[in-house]
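[job 0412] stage=complex_fold ligand=zinc ion status=START
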Amino acid sequence: MLELRPTCEHCNKALPPNSPEARICSYECTFCAACVAHVLGNVCPNCGGGFVPRPIRPSKNWKGDNFLGKDPASTTVKHRPVNVAAHELFSAALRTISPEKR
Ligand SMILES: [Zn+2]
Ligand SMILES: [Zn+2]
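[job 0412] stage=complex_fold status=DONE, emitting structure tokens
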């Protein structure tokens, strides 16, 4: 199950579970859409993979107790700002390869 982390790792912007701005990599590294586009170049600084929009967990119990009331979002902040200069070096080549070919 996704943790639904509460903020962007880089800028610490709040990303509540219903935020359409949340982006995750396959390891659930979590950033806001602006940081993914303008800082990261769609390259995860932790694994090199790409990002997709984070799915939104229902707030209401539509079926089988599968909702935020039973499985709430994480409250553990992972604020690990990216070293922008280092990321430029790391991601320079990766940015030219689409995520499905990395
Ligand atoms: Zn951000
Ligand atoms: Zn990652």
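The beta strands are 22-24, 30-32, 52-53.
[job 0412] exit 0
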